[in-house]
């Protein structure tokens, strides 16, 4: 049995208001039901809607008895108080969120968040009993210098180095090379696997095999139903963080099916 359950996570970004979100979940429910999707199989599905759609998504998932998890795209590092516009980890946990994306490249770019902020956010998510999905990945500039692996591993190390073994075991890392996001140009399966392997090796060096063996490492960047199967061939790739394709229920359900089959094949190894 693989010790890591693959995750198919949809990051909706700033798309789908609460009414559109309800339509999405109903269609997804029908598709998964029609495909006789086996929630007991070895893959997990999660949706990360905008804050305003989380509650509607969560209520509908429950009503439809869909074992799909919910997450958020960002969180404040602070626990509460006079911080207009911010949302705390505790609020997300109370909404039933399981995961919180931390340090997505779009947030790093448009809302400069330094490593200190990200360290605090990861800690806040863990303290609230949820799991952070820390996003890392190089831009074309680092790639052209041939330092992409050092760069991505450095981002992981900068944010996670002071965590305890127990905390580190609950992390998920999403390797999302900036050049692959949104443009339709996915990383090759080899590139995704090399990065995931380098990140896992970092955890092995820092925390040992027990932690390195359970940290889930996702790939993100132009994942779709055509490239999902080959990207899942990487032994260190434990699923996907999906943007554009996660806004289309048919495509998202297809990818979930592909990852489930890959997970079953892995378990059989
Ligand atoms: P795309 O799948 O649209 O490339 O987005 C990836 C992403 O940023 C997920 O967090």
Small molecules bound: 1,3-dihydroxyacetonephosphate
- The CATH homologous superfamily is termed Aldolase class I
Radius of gyration: 17 Å
How many discrete structural domains? 1
- Determine the fraction of residues in helical runs and give it as a percent range: 40-55%
Strand order of the largest sheet: 7-6-5-4-3-2-1-8
Kindly report how far apart the N and C termini lie.
8 Å
Q: Would you tell me the structural class of the helices and strands?
A: alpha/beta
Low-confidence stretches: none
Q: Mind telling me the CATH class? A: Alpha Beta
* DSSP strand count: 8
Biggest sheet, open or closed, and with what strands and sense? 8 strands, parallel
Count of alpha and pi helical runs: 12
Percent of residues in beta strands? 5-15%
Return the string of H and E elements. Answer: EHEHEHEHHEHHHEHHEHEH
* CATH level-two architecture: Alpha-Beta Barrel
Describe it for me?
With 269 residues, this protein is an alpha/beta fold. The protein has a single domain (7-267), classed as Alpha-Beta Barrel (TIM Barrel). The chain has 12 helices and 8 strands. The chain has helices at 18-34, 51-63, 89-94, 105-110, 115-127, 140-144, 148-160, 165-169, 189-207, 209-212, 228-231, 249-268; strands spanning 7-11, 44-48, 69-72, 99-102, 131-136, 172-175, 216-219, 239-242. An 8-stranded parallel β-sheet has the order 7-6-5-4-3-2-1-8. Helix 5 (115-127) packs across helix 7 (148-160). The N and C termini lie close together (8 Å). The model has no long low-confidence stretch (mean pLDDT 95). The structure holds 1,3-dihydroxyacetonephosphate (13P). 1,3-dihydroxyacetonephosphate (13P) is lined by residues 11, 104, 176, 181-182, 220-223, 241-245.
